[in-house]
Amino acid sequence: MGSSGAATPEGKKTTVSPKAVIYQKYGSRASYEVEEVQDFVQNGCPGLCIPQKGPCLYRCRLNLPELSILSGTFRKKKDAEQAAAEMALQKLGIHPLTHNADVRDAGEDLVSRVAYLFSNEFLASQHPLSCHFRASLSREGYLYGSVPVSVIAVYDGKISTLCKLIDPMVESNPSLAISFVLRAAATLPTLITATEGQLWIRRQNPYPPEVIEPLLVEQPSTLGGVCVQALLIPSSLNEDVKPVTLNVCSSNYYLDVIAQKLGELDASKILVSRPIGKASSETRLYFVASDLQFVEPTSDLNGKKLDIFEGSMNTRASYLAGQGVYGGAILASIGYTWKSKDLFHEDVFLKLYYRMLIYKTPSGPYKLYRESTIAAELPVVFTIKSNWRGTFPKEILCTFCRQHRLSEPVFAISRYPVKALSDLSGSQKKLKVTESTEDTGQTNENAANHGDDETVESVSHFRCEVKVLSKLQDLLLQCSPKDFYRKETDCIQNASLKVLSWLSSYFQDFNMPLEKLNSLADALDIKVNTQHLFKEFKFCSTMYLNQQRTIKANNCIDGPQATEEHEHYLLRIEGPESGICPSNGSLACICYSACLVTEVGHTKELIESSHEFEFEMGSRAVNPHVETAVAQMSVGQSAFYLVDLPSQELILAAANDSARALSLINSNMCGLEYCITLLKVTEPLEDRMEQALFSPPLSKQRVDYAVEHIKKSGATTLVDFGCGSGSLLESLLDYPTSLRKIVGVDLSLKSLSRAAKVLHSKLSKSLDADMPCKSIQSATLYDGSIIVFDSRMCGFDIGTCLEVIEHMEEDQASLFGDLVLSSFRPSVLIVSTPNYEYNVILQKSDLPSQEEAPDGKGQSESCRFRNHDHKFEWTREQFGSWARNLASRNNYSVEFSGVGGSADHEPGFASQIALFKRLPQLDERLEDGESVHLYNVIWEWSNHETTKSFD
Ligand code: SAH
Ligand code: MG
């Protein structure tokens, strides 16, 4: 099978069918299913399509382990199969040419290609490489006409392809290509001079004058020359990367100029890397060839050799290029292109170098896109599309893979109709699988292609699996989230983000023990093939591990301080409190600046700033300290604080004046001062909907309902389960009640601290003034989970739980119900939760600016639940059966009520409420069980005076 790729004599073009390539790669793991498609001939009347049997057509589905592809329709079965195979190759990024002809053919092809490059015809042609050949004719003395082999290996696409065919290891060690070109040249002694041990080759006989003369006339007359800014990256990490100037004029060969900067006289010793950054860029690394370069990475090196290997390795340059670079290297954007015969050049500044470093990290493209390298972080969750700012996770993941020369990630989307989902519960019924390596639009098309019933599609849920593969198709990692999404794009983005999050942790600590890496992966539904992964990222790990080593060494010189202490800073907030505060899920819009400040002399240097930076609270889209600050602010206020410096890379990728930033960083006692103003807060969808439709807002109506009930009940003790920021507890203080003891429990520390703030100020006032709440003698806030037992929650008169259960998984909601009613046993329990049936009405109230709905499905799809943190929303029937079962199990009665809307009109209340009452029980005795304290007291208040009088 492998020999089917015979080369045709003239063109030297190997033609092998896509099917053959697939067979070579997958063997029997590839299966083709051909199906007949009826072709309906249209009868000329648009809209009136009368089926008439036309010729029989075929389409083919190709199933591969990682994807399945459906071809278009063809008259011949054979064509459909080939088309499917070709589409698969495209998706996998495999070029047929690189996988067909056997090695011997490739070797022969390489020889003839090299011969062609030294022909008269090629010299006159328009090709980036022919410019090098022409430039070599301007070299003087013994260098006249000699062309560096590295240039031949790098600038001709055909040569690179053939070299990879001879040995796929060229992919990871491009210098191998040089030996292949030299070997090919050696077989052409009459045409080419190639001296052993030399890295240049030259034509045996000079070009005839009739070939050369027209070229000289054509030559651009830019005699003056140019100065190109480039960077020198020393191999020692102790030396900074510094600017160098290349003086290039039309009478010298630019590679000779670069060679001189690297201390070499002869450009043929210079090796040229792949383009860095974007594939289309001409930014490359130039470095002197070392013997080590030609050692195959797989060959066994004994320990000693390895030391030398590591010693001269230029870790920064190797990281950038993704290939071994030894000794000093020059990073420059210069070279010949297809566009013009003139030399292309662009200045490369330090900032660009640092941005390139950042771009290669998993979160880099996000930070750079947001133009916020030091304040922005790649969020850890993708909630809804309209809350995401910046490049989408899937795009970032694709960029990351390209940057690290991996294959394009493979996405597999499974579709489940909603009905099947409800009886799915664990047992996995896979119904339809569509594939995409491209954008989601394409997947939609695929889905539509063979999804014959539209109705099923509109009520489907999606799940997405992502695979990251090396260029040679080794599986590096696979993420298979169990969550279902209403929208295809959401499941793709979420899975991509999980992969990126894991990669980020890996990039932050390449020394992380294997167990920890795996447990992080587990938590993100990821399986990692560490062996392949470590191999692919070896240059990255060397880079960051060595850097850490040097930082540590430097810190020791400066003194042992700094490294250990972190994140304690003083936050100063200025401006009047407006009461408009961001909470989880809301969008905060801030204006910020970050300046380097030195303790000595108080020098300040602006590093990064933005007039309008918007992010979703609670998704960790910014540095933790920025979010902490913003969480404590209200609109209009400003915050100021100082933090330790982030990594030098980040600062220099942001700073405009790199030299100055560098000198400040190196001077001791330098910190980063943040100044943040909160400009605007956009509420989460739920709040906006409830405010748009109800007056007073639904949240207030809920609280009022509970307050009314408490007033009437004569209760003296109350516990609010999931009290959040204390909206109910706070309102209670505004009315005279019989309450003496109030308690709140939540697991959000941020909400609890806000609750503590308001309760504290209100209760303190009650001591002096004649406030309605003066009956209250103690108030306590606990940090704890309401599905965990704590004996201090037992025996209250009233328990409340407003809009909390839907934030837990359904089984946990049941657990909570049982725990409260069987163990805590309050006399009364009030539980509220959204009524799912009411959502149609909420969604009809117009909410402009949300969800541009590019897929035409509209916004009702995106906000099926009122809040992205909701794990479920129940219909009246679901809530009813949950509550009735609970009540009967635990000897309580239950009644139903609600707020917003009415019980008598469909679809019932907007918020449904269950009122549980403990039924008298003969054998009920309040157990004096042992005390179990699993909650932490966050804040406690007591009215000492009154307490005393009771003593
Ligand atoms: N009852 C408040 C807050 C509702 S928001 C009000 O009506 O305004 C839901 C709250 O439930 C959040 O503050 C969240 O932190 C809390 N919560 C969710 N799961 C919890 C759990 N297992 N234990 C305690 N609190 C929980
Ligand atoms: Mg809620």
From TrEMBL:
Span of domain HTH La-type RNA-binding: 100-211
Requisite cofactors? Mg(2+)
The record's region (Disordered) falls at 432-453
Q: Which organism is it from?
A: Rhodamnia argentea
Q: Which UniProt keywords apply?
A: Magnesium, Metal-binding, Methyltransferase, RNA-binding, RNA-mediated gene silencing, S-adenosyl-L-methionine, Transferase
Query: What's the family?
Result: Belongs to the methyltransferase superfamily. HEN1 family.
Gene Ontology CC: cytoplasm; nucleus
| EC numbers, comma separated | 2.1.1.386
- The protein's gene is named LOC115754327
Family matches, as Pfam families: dsRBD2, DSRM_2, Hen1_Lam_C, Hen1_LCD
**Which Gene3D superfamilies does the record cross-reference, listed alphabetically?**
3.30.160.20, Vaccinia Virus protein VP39 (3.40.50.150)
Catalytic activity field? small RNA 3'-end nucleotide + S-adenosyl-L-methionine = small RNA 3'-end 2'-O-methylnucleotide + S-adenosyl-L-homocysteine + H(+)
List, alphabetically, the PROSITE patterns matched: HTH_LA
Q: Could you tell me which InterPro entries the record lists for this protein?
A: DSRM_2, Hen1, HEN1_dsRBD2, Hen1_Lam_C, La_HTH, SAM-dependent_MTases_sf
This chain's protein is named Small RNA 2'-O-methyltransferase
Q: Which GO terms describe its molecular function?
A: metal ion binding; RNA binding; small RNA 2'-O-methyltransferase activity
Q: What is the uppermost EC class here?
A: transferase
One GO term (biological process): siRNA processing
